[in-house]
């Protein structure tokens, strides 16, 4: 009988390379929010994959990038600390022969850690198959990779091979979570993230970086068939508030409807979702407000 293996794996890569899409595909349920805007993932979302072979706990870190404000610094510190704490690093990149400054910055960080690194070339569904070797060649020299695996997170191509490769590098270990656990994130936090995802998808480019979502109330009605959720979308400017609400409340209604559908799927029951919009100027540079929205400085201590 094969030994049960387990361990912690972090996904890193520049914003938008498909980290959350890959994790959602491997886990088979929507946990990490996805959007085509950078810096979608702000916290380390921990998700769990369990099979007969073993258990992999994924930490989806915020992207490593050069920080511009306190929230940015916090995200980068969390991401870089994770590299030292896990059993495997999965570095996701796009299929290209051009390796830019952002990728070189990450490669430099990876050269400083002892953790095994597996390079994952994502989005191979967007290129010709015969070009993939060229991309592997371009990347192979910039860091010491244990393996290079081309995948399409969106189409699920080669993702089973990727799981096999990860298990090759994990040691025998315990089952950290019950077999049916898929995330350690509290439901409130995931609900907030799903609302933020819908806002990111529906709003114009200049707003989303400046929004956060707080869950004010989450209460199950007697009988457990319906959950009431009150949430506030916080933005940085009065003009943004008008855009988020939209003409006669149409945009807010659209965000709420889409988020409610995803939250109902997640919680497996009906949800009554009410959304409000508030302006808090410069919340991204306030330690108090960063903590208030679940980005905890204590994650960085010790």
Overview of the structural elements:
The chain is of the alpha/beta class and 302 residues long. The protein contains 9 helices and 9 strands. The strands form 2 sheets. The chain has a 6-stranded mixed beta sheet, sandwiched between helices. A 3-stranded mixed beta sheet has the order 7-8-9. Helix 6 packs antiparallel against helix 8. The C terminus is likely disordered.
Shape: globular
Adjacency order of strands in the biggest sheet: 2-3-1-4-5-6
Task: Point out poorly predicted stretches.
Answer: 32-44, 297-302
Share of helical residues: 25-40%
Protein structure class: alpha/beta
Order of helices and strands: EHEEHEHEHEHHEEHHEH
| End-to-end C-alpha gap | 40 Å
| Largest sheet data | 6 strands, mixed
Radius of gyration: 20 Å
Mean pLDDT: 81
What portion of residues belong to β-strands? 15-25%
- Helix count, per DSSP? 9
Number of strands: 9
């Amino acid at each position: 009988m094969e030994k049960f293996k387990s361990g912690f794996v972090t996904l890193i890569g520049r914003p938008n390379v498909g980290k959350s899409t890959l994790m959602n595909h491997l886990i088979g349920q929507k946990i990490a929010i996805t959007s085509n805007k950078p810096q979608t993932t702000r916290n380390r979302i921990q998700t769990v994959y369990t099979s007969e072979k073993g258990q992999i706990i994924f930490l989806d870190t915020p992207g490593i990038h050069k920080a511009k404000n306190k929230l940015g610094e916090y995200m980068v510190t969390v991401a870089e600390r994770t590299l030292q704490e896990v059993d495997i690093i999965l570095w996701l990149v796009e299929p290209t022969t051009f390796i830019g400054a952002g990728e070189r910055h990450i490669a430099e960080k990876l050269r400083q850690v002892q953790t095994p690194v597996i390079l994952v070339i994502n989005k191979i569904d967007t290129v010709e198959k015969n070009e993939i070797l060229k991309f592997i060649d371009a990347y192979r020299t910039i860091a010491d990779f244990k393996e290079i695996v081309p995948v399409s997170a969106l189409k699920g191509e080669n993702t089973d091979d990727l799981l096999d490769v990860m298990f090759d590098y994990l040691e025998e270990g315990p089952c950290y979570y019950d077999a049916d656990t898929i995330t350690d994130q509290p439901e409130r936090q995931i609900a907030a993230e799903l609302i933020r995802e819908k806002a990111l998808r529906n709003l114009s480019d200049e707003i989303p970086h400046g929004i956060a979502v707080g869950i004010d109330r989450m209460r199950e009605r007697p009988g457990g068939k319906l959950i009431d959720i009150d949430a506030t979308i916080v933005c940085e400017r009065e003009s943004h508030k008008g855009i988020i609400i939209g003409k006669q409340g149409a945009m807010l209604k659209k965000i709420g409807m889409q988020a409610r559908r995803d939250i109902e799927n997640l919680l497996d029951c009906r949800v009554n979702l009410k959304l409000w919009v508030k302006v808090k100027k410069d919340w991204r540079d306030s330690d108090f407000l960063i903590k208030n929205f679940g980005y905890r400085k204590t994650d960085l201590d010790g």
